[in-house]
Automatic annotation (TrEMBL):
SUPFAM superfamilies tied to this protein: Aspartate/glutamate racemase (SSF53681)
This protein's name: Aspartate/glutamate racemase family protein
Gene3D superfamilies reported in the protein's UniProt record: 3.40.50.1860
Species assigned in the record: Mucilaginibacter terrigena
Keyword Isomerase (UniProt): yes
MF annotations from Gene Ontology: amino-acid racemase activity
A Pfam family: Asp_Glu_race
Keyword line: Isomerase
Family note: Belongs to the aspartate/glutamate racemases family.
Keyword Transferase tagged: no
UniProt cross-references to PROSITE patterns, sorted A to Z: ASP_GLU_RACEMASE_2
Length: 229
């Protein structure tokens, strides 16, 4: 079994799920008392959020590379960035760390292709919805991504920062998310990507009439596949 290096804390709420899903995935495959070989570097998210607010991705990139090198030196054989948004710098991180970075968008596109869908809605931070790092990989796989309107993107981003990332899950916030999802379905979305690791803590599979793609679970499964490959 290969050792995986997790870069988390963005947020710690969802990093817990990564730890659980990867360990459960290994145990499902190997049985007994088997669990994953994991190393974790967990950021103080306030430092990352400060960089985001200043649009200082160079500083975030350096932080991620430095932490990844530390994990590599401790024995990690691949890196898992435990957040969709951090994949904006995944290619630079992979080059700087010198280890494979298992890409969340690539893994998600692969699963969507298995279902034969060609048009999906994408929810996430504004970085995920508006930058090309996620949507380009979907497009390259023959999948057309559609995102909410600007006001809805602002709402999703704000609630991810101020509520979901702090473990706060409000009924009125969930209702608004479901309205946004229904709007994307009306625009032709055949499925919905829950493209921020906190969103699946708010929106459940039974809440929508179309399939949901939980990127946390998909990414964790890809990590398990690498560890046992």
């Amino acid at each position: 079994m290969k050792t995986l290096g997790l870069i988390g804390g963005t947020s710690w709420i969802s990093t817990i799920d990564y730890y659980r899903f990867i360990n459960q995935g290994i145990n499902d495959k190997l049985g007994g008392v088997n669990a994953a070989q994991l190393l974790l570097h967990s950021f103080n998210y306030a430092d990352i959020a400060k960089n985001h607010a200043a649009n200082d991705w160079a500083k975030t990139t350096k932080m991620v590379i430095d932490s990844g090198i530390g994990l590599r030196n401790a024995g990690a054989e691949a890196i898992i960035l435990c957040a969709n948004t951090l994949h904006l710098i995944a290619d630079e991180a992979e080059q700087g760390i010198g280890l494979p970075v298992i890409n969340i968008a690539t893994a998600t596109a692969k699963v969507i292709n298995k279902y034969g869908l060609t048009k999906v809605g994408l929810l996430g931070t504004k970085f995920t919805m508006e930058r090309a790092f996620f949507t380009d990989r979907l497009s390259a796989a023959g999948i057309q991504p559609i995102t909410p309107n600007p006001a809805d993107r602002d709402f999703i981003h704000q609630t991810l920062m101020d509520e979901l990332g702090k473990g706060i899950f409000l009924a009125e916030t969930k209702a608004r998310y479901l309205q946004i999802i229904n709007s994307l379905i009306q625009q032709g979305a055949q499925g919905i990507i829950l493209g921020c690791t906190e969103i699946p803590l708010l929106i459940m599979p039974e809440d929508t009439d179309v399939i949901q793609f939980d990127t946390t679970q998909i990414h964790s499964a890809a990590a398990v596949e690498f560890a046992l490959g």
